[in-house]
Design a protein that fits this description.
With 239 residues, this protein is an alpha/beta fold. Helix content is 40%, strand content 19%. It has 7 helices and 10 strands. Strands 4-3-5-2-6-9-1-10 form an 8-stranded mixed beta sheet, sandwiched between helices. The longest helix is centred in the N-terminal third of the chain and has 23 residues, at 2-24. The chain is globular, with a radius of gyration of 18 Å. It starts with a helix and ends with a strand.
């Protein structure tokens, strides 16, 4: 009975909770044209995010169908895999510690078949904010762009986990921000690869800090004025 509940009941209960809370969020997207341009070129983006911030993206990015994601082969990963599949993702099982090589090969094939990919750069166990090299190998061999996807919420619950995992509270305002896409040359050498990984880590850290600082401006999103020369979508409530 425990196994049945875990496999067939709990994923749907979690799905209901995630959809319900997501529908209450008020989401604003910064620079949507970066993402739109990638699709117009006939390419499939690799959305990259910290593990700490991926919760709102589970539903939001599922709309970019077909889309795939790597989920660890742990027991927790089994549950998460079932939930995201219900939401519309295609899951590939593996992580940096177990089965990651085979999973990356499958993701590269899916990218060439037209799938977008959501990738948690420092998951599933960290260290926090440190990019695993498999991400760059996937981008290098597929030829598809890395698309930094920054999520920041006004009000949130913060958990006592290795990365202080965040779930935005119901009815919270949420910013989703795309940064310029990054391509990895096929002939890149190891020294340049390590340099690009360090640059991407610094850039993500900068983007998260800059976007989070918006909430220090308490008067109705006035912090957006700091993000000049960017295309900002209308503020709206997801339905």
């Amino acid at each position: 009975m425990k196994s049945f509940f875990y496999r067939y009941i709990l994923p749907y209960l979690a799905f209901f909770f995630i959809k319900l809370i997501f529908l209450s969020y008020r989401i604003r997207i910064i620079d949507p044209k970066i993402e739109e341009t990638i699709y117009k070129r006939g390419e499939s983006p690799i959305y990259i995010s910290w593990h700490q911030r991926f919760f709102p993206g589970i539903c939001l990015m599922a709309k970019r169908s077909p889309i795939a994601i790597m989920i660890s082969q742990s027991t927790d990963g089994e549950l998460i895999s079932k939930i995201v599949e219900i939401l519309g993702w295609r899951t590939v099982r593996g992580s940096s510690s177990r089965g990651g090589g085979r999973a990356l090969i499958k993701l590269k094939r899916l990218l060439k078949e037209g799938y977008a990919v959501g990738h948690i750069v420092d998951g599933p166990r960290g260290p926090f904010g440190k990019i695993k090299p498999g991400l760059f190998a996937m981008a290098k061999h597929s030829g598809m762009p890395l698309l930094p996807t920054i999520v920041s919420s006004e009000k949130k619950w913060t958990f006592n986990s290795w990365d202080n995992f965040i779930i935005p509270k119901p009815f919270s305002k949420i910013i989703v921000r795309f940064d310029r896409e990054v391509y990895i040359p096929k002939d890149i050498n190891q020294e340049r690869l390590e340099e690009m990984i360090n640059q991407m880590e610094c850039r993500l850290d900068e983007l998260y800090r800059e976007t989070d600082s918006i909430w220090l401006q308490r008067e109705s999103f006035t912090g957006y004025e700091k993000l000049r020369n960017q295309n900002i979508s209308s503020f709206h409530k997801r339905r």
